[in-house]
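User: Reviewer 2 asked us to show a designed sequence for the structure in our supplementary figure. I'm pasting the structure tokens here. Could you produce the per-position amino acids so we can include them in the response letter?
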């Protein structure tokens, strides 16, 4: 139920985070001098642990033969990952500059473009009658490569305008190793070796991952209440443009790679739907004193979840109407239990 209505739960929890001070005032708790408790802002120290838990759960949920699948179809996986790490960073940097966003928001938009694709794209690929196995392989490849690629992109983007670009890149590398790749590999290996953990992950892993990501995004909303209430139309336009370019880049990349339609759909959704939860955590740890940098990744979550859901529903309805495309087969593992952005 959580995965099926993920966008609705995202809106509800973030709405609660945004309006928390108002609600507290309405019920009269704010009048008590000793009561000034904000659960969202107080959870900030736990963000790295929450995200590491997300990646651990996702590692547990990876199919047993996933690494073999990546190697088996390596030309398509390498090609799709190259499109991912070329189109999105360039588009993010170009749009942020063209829209003349404030520097903090520019950094946040670049972080959105740098991070790998999200596991939510795997679920939407299933709804779109795309190749789920290929989608999971793309996510796995981009995630495992992120400690090498993301710091390099950040260094190239910020080396002229940021005095500590090298330090920033090294910090990003450490965060990605310890909170992304490390937990994914640990979860995958432990779940393969210990059957009780595997059973637990299949039943609860996706729910735990989604709840953690929802809370991380809600924290960002709470930390940027005043700015959100000003309604940054310029930022929304930039993020929507980045999302559309991601989908178009995926479509063009799929055509150039001569992928069949189901794999093209997987690539389009993979590139357009970034791991905004990772972008949020990176922003919080690399720029702890600049909460506004966390805003673009959080807002991108809303946009890409909405457009991805609509696109997947459209493709799925077309496939069902034509009856020309089969439902994904058993070698394309169902991922309704997987989660995360």
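Assistant: Here is a per-position design you can include in the supplement:
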């Amino acid at each position: 139920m959580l995965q099926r209505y993920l966008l609705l739960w995202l809106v509800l929890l973030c709405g609660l985070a945004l309006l928390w001070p108002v609600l507290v005032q309405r019920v009269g708790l704010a009048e008590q001098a000793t009561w000034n408790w904000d659960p969202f802002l107080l959870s900030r120290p736990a963000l790295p642990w929450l995200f590491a838990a997300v990646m651990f759960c996702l590692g547990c949920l990876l199919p047993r033969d996933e690494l073999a699948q990546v190697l088996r179809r390596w030309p398509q996986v390498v090609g799709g990952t190259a499109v991912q790490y070329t189109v999105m960073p360039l588009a993010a940097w170009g749009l942020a500059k063209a829209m003349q966003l404030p520097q903090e928001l520019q950094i946040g938009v670049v972080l959105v473009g740098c991070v790998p694709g999200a596991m939510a794209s795997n679920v939407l690929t299933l709804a779109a009658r795309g190749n789920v196995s290929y989608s999971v392989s793309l996510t796995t490849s981009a995630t495992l490569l992120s400690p090498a690629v993301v710091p390099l992109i950040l260094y190239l983007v910020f080396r002229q305008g940021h005095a500590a670009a090298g330090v920033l890149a090294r910090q990003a590398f450490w965060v990605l190793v310890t909170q992304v790749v490390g937990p994914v590999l640990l979860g995958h290996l432990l779940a393969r070796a210990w059957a009780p953990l595997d059973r637990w992950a299949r039943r609860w892993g996706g729910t735990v991952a989604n709840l953690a990501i929802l809370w991380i995004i809600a924290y960002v909303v709470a930390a940027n209440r005043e700015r959100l209430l000003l309604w940054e139309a310029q930022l929304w336009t930039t993020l929507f443009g980045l999302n559309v370019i991601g989908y178009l880049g995926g479509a063009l990349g799929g055509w150039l790679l001569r992928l069949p339609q189901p794999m093209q759909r997987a690539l389009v959704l993979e590139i357009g739907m970034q791991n905004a939860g990772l972008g949020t955590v990176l922003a919080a740890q690399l720029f702890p004193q600049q909460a506004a940098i966390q805003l673009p990744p959080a807002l991108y979550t809303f946009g890409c979840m909405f457009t991805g859901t609509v696109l997947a529903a459209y493709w799925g309805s077309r496939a069902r109407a034509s009856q020309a495309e089969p439902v994904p087969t058993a070698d394309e593992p169902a991922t309704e239990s997987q989660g995360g952005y």
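For the response letter, you might also mention the following. The domain at 42-317 is CATH 1.20.1530.20 (Na+/H+ antiporter like fold). Residues 329-337 have pLDDT under 50 and may be disordered.
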